[in-house]
Amino acid sequence: MANFRKLASGKWQARVHKDGKLVSLGTFRTKKEAEIEAAKVEERKYYGQTINDRNMLFDEVVKDWLEHKNANVKESTFVQLEVIIRNHVLPTFGHKKIMMIHRPEIKRWIAKFGELDENGKEKYSFGSRLKYLSVMKSILHYAVHELDVLEKNPADKLKVPIQDSVAIKKEKVKYFSLKELNRLLDFMKTYKHQRFPEYQLYYTLMLFLSKTGLRISEALALRWEDVDGDKISINKQTSRDDNNKVKLTTLKNASSYRIIKIEPDVIRELKKFKMKQNELILGNPRFRKNEDGIIFQNYNGHYLTPSIIRETMQDYCKKAGVEYKGTHGFRHTHAVLLLESGVSLKYVSNRLGHKTIKTTADTYLDITEKIEEDELQKFASYTKR
Where is the Tyr recombinase domain (predicted)? Predict the structure, then answer.
């Protein structure tokens, strides 16, 4: 039988017997509410279902949730979740009982990340706040549906507030125009590296990225065995551990696993690059072979690191007189040039490995709108009387 008692605060506490001990189900405004909750628990007991401790601390729920996530998400994703939990969630909620976390408190918590600093800028980006709230919702959803320690999710349908004084702007896509790209590639084609002048690593990498649209992490993981005639299989990517050691990981999502065709000019440049790489490996003791047989190795036989690539490409762009657009700029350049040449949005989406065509449309909305406007002007000009 359930046990009820009125507390000094005026609220009612409901308790049931579990393993020979009285376990609190929480406090309620009225005795009727306490009786209803107790009846639900007694029913679960009758049918042999587990009765979870509704006084569980939030950090206990988090530990259980993280174990569940660790078994179901990529390692890199799990690391991101763990950092968000440790730095942004637990400091506020970790010491609280899960059932004592209420909607207004969650709203205040997420709004705090959007406060303005002394320069009038938000302390955390809108995207970061979306992630934090999404993680909180997921934890509470797990508490409701897996642990059964909450009746409902207090964060359900909550949205990230937007400051009235701050307009959330869509980040502008940075890409090279065809003229800029050709200028950069022409410079790189004639540039001679001091140590191995004939080893055109960065020319080949820039050309390859701009002609395939691969993410830099995907390109750096490619092996020569992934190239089959005019096709390339993309099935892994590079990342770095806490000690900055390279490791190969799975791709971003199922759509990222793909086989794409490459044009004859790129195949020809890759073949020339491979011949030169083999020639140096066999003929120069200072030039070492990468044990994984990757395409874009440095002369030490190592994988390239994102930070070195960034610094090196910035320097080359400056020397070529072209604004640096970031390593992702080559991917954007490939997509934009495809769209400007008249290729369908679906083809671009598949080639880039986007999860949905909406991702592609949203990313390149400004470009597609301009193309549509140009096409409409052609139609208007053709039909004008």
Answer: 171-377
